[in-house]
Amino acid sequence: MHKISIKDVAKKANVSITAVSQILNNKGERFSEETIKKVLQARDELGYVPNSAARNLKVRHSRLIGIIVPSFRMPFFADIIQSMQDNAPEDVNLVFIGSTADNLQSSIYSLVERGVQALIFGRPIPNRDVVNAFLKKRHIPYLVLDQNADINAQDMVQTNEFTGGSLAASHLLSLGHRDIALILPNELTDNMRQRRAGFLDTLSAANVTPVSVISSALSKHGGLAVVHQLIQSQATAAFVLNDEMAIGVLRGLTWQNVKVPENMSIVGYDDTDYAEFMVPSLTTIAQPVAEIGQSALNMILQRLAHPNLPYQTAFFDVKLVIRESTAKLLLD
Amino acid sequence: MHKISIKDVAKKANVSITAVSQILNNKGERFSEETIKKVLQARDELGYVPNSAARNLKVRHSRLIGIIVPSFRMPFFADIIQSMQDNAPEDVNLVFIGSTADNLQSSIYSLVERGVQALIFGRPIPNRDVVNAFLKKRHIPYLVLDQNADINAQDMVQTNEFTGGSLAASHLLSLGHRDIALILPNELTDNMRQRRAGFLDTLSAANVTPVSVISSALSKHGGLAVVHQLIQSQATAAFVLNDEMAIGVLRGLTWQNVKVPENMSIVGYDDTDYAEFMVPSLTTIAQPVAEIGQSALNMILQRLAHPNLPYQTAFFDVKLVIRESTAKLLLD
DNA sequence: TTTGAAATTGGAAGCGTTTTCAAAAAAATT
DNA sequence: AATTTTTTTGAAAACGCTTCCAATTTCAAA
């Protein structure tokens, strides 16, 4: 019934509350060996666990950081948050939320109610201005992952999406493909736009334009649903803006008896866990996911320590991973 | 600098703190229209957001529920937590932790420091006794997912793992297979044991014993690493205890030019998102993941509302999903 | 012994809320 | 106009903790 508090251990150890607090927080050098022992023992016998709500209230901060991603179910983000958690310092607490555009606002609100001191956005922010104003007003710094944003408004970590798209294009080009399709999600996020830009630029530098640009739902099923369009386009290769969709495409192609890579080359994006396990394994653009997660966390921790330093942007490079889903164009 | 508090809005609205508190918590019927309006307006102008640490301290509860899973990167658990979050009532907060056996204890500790009122374990609990004692002492109810446990010690949600294993066996049997391998993870969790039991029982009822039992790391790479053993076993079919490993196996088999299902049938377990996208698509045992997540959350909420009701166990059925990775044994 | 310094300890305020209970104001009844 | 009833409001305590600062004890030096 009765939650045991610092008062209880003070009473049991026959010392003041002050002593208990100081000692348990490793600030008790000034106390005698004996008191220290008494306190520790009382703590253990009682099984006292401090109440961080009370602590936070008093010290006026929480060491709580909120991380907002579109969904836990996307491997890319699962990797990111796992790497954050694995690398978080002992004394900081992370809270993850998978949040759609619809409830982003209320997610943010609930997070600041809970006292987060900083936020990391792994997803696009609708109404960026109001979110920014809201957060700035409360002095809650935030960081955005892979999104265009005012470089002077917050920290960012970015990967070289443009290069990514470009790498995909030159790979396909170098294999001799000229009839190339582009498959992109219905709703383009900033990073997707850059992938596309890099891809398109490199293509047009070689004087080729895509034979087809296809919109798909951002999911495996989305990719699957779109393969007949791809087939009709007469393309010999396709760049699919992320691995999830690419996996769907691969699957659909096999069902339609289109051989990959003999009759169609496919390159994805993200180098998700699953890419190398597809049949055929998926050529794709790899991002250093773990580093991205760590870096984001570290930057925001930095920010908390030094609120007034100029905002920073971390850049990560991207690389092409060649696997089985792409091959030289066969001439007939 | 200065975080704005209830006091500020009271001052601005020219009313008491009491009034503000009551009104903003929808307990302000007794106040006049006018005061209510003043308060709301002041709240809005100031952009006041209540401090839940203070609130929790005062009301002595948090509506916070901790969910501990082995890793965010396992699709099965990603699905579970997503479904929990999607179905959580407005006023409850969820905090997810991906925790290995090593830091389970400290994860739990940190969660109770943060004031969780209940816990859901999606992973095995080493030292169950001490965990149980720790939690019971603090009146923190918990629920376990798919684990053996004293039915009178906590709530549980289980799926019919035994049936799952059995279904896999009879499917393979009915296809004419008699040389069947079993691939299981290095470390068997309770639910894995049951899968195995169901599988083995059904096999032996038909008078067959596995030609080989192979241990693998619980991952795609683990499955991959183990295919040569599988091939050497001369099995014509294998039951792999989860989809992740099965995906690895599928991949390895293709590389070894073993045709699935012509030369080897494979059945997995979980019906992960990816199962249907493999080439060949994976026959597997499906669990109603979303329902499981919701049910777990609802049960623990129930428990919070009625701490003294007898513990309950929810059972979910499991079903065989036949896809391309299994086929009739070809006679030669 | 006395004194002063050093070592050790504890009282109390306050963090932002909620809630009880009494007080004040307004309205209704004599 | 006086009284009672009803409506509306606010003061203050408490939740569990940290921390400032003053109080007490111990000990060495005079």
Automatic annotation (TrEMBL), chains A, B:
One of its GO terms (molecular function) is DNA-binding transcription factor activity. Pfam families: LacI, Peripla_BP_3. Keywords: DNA-binding, Repressor, Transcription, Transcription regulation. It comes from the Bacteria. Residues 4-59 form the HTH lacI-type domain. The keyword DNA repair does not apply. Signal peptide: none annotated. Residues 2-49 form the HTH cro/C1-type domain. This is LacI family transcriptional regulator. It comes from Leuconostoc pseudomesenteroides.
